[in-house]
Amino acid sequence: MTDQELYLGTIEDLEARLAKSTEYDIIRAAALLRHLLIDGPPLVHLANRGPRLRLVFREFQVPDLSHLGHWGIPWNSGDNVDFPSNNLVDLDRLLASKCLFVKGHHFSVIELIKLWAYVRGGVHSGKPDEREQAIQIADETTLSVDADTVLSVSAYSMRQIIAVAIEGLRPLTAAIKTAAGGN
Q1: Which of 113, 131, 132, 164 is deepest in the core (most CB within 10 A)?
Q2: Residue numbers of the domain that contains 125
Q3: How many domains does the chain have?
Q4: What CA–CA distance (Å, rounded) separates 183 from 174?
Q5: Residue 168's Cα: distance from chain center in Å?
Q6: Percentage above 70 pLDDT, the chain
Q7: In this structure, what DSSP letter does residue 115 have?
């Protein structure tokens, strides 16, 4: 299997898991995101060797939300507000952007992916550190995705990360499909 074929399969898997959005699907998506965006070298870089596209993603921007109490997210689909900003950034800045605020701590995209991949069971099941324990407390609060889907605060944030990653990778996905003679 080529890097491009593995990439396309990973994107299809992420899209299916986003559509379902169960907690299990989000846990499994964390492992896929880790492989796609973080592992050295990230699968996205291997798949982009041919097309050499400049990849851009919408940046998460979570201000200091300490006035809200225990937790805060950058965007809620029910707010009718553009998601999550109009700033376009490269992969490194996406991974560094803050996507969740919990009990005085900001968590970046990479930290949340790693929490779900390494602690919640996406790749391994482990013990959360002190900061990550704050997320477990915040996860007692749930948010509705739609009439049938309710997720914890961090699962909701992971769902947003999955959506932003897929959106930012659409040009690469299309280029690889075109080069392979597909649609």
Answers
A1: 113
A2: 3-179
A3: 1
A4: 7
A5: 11
A6: 70
A7: I
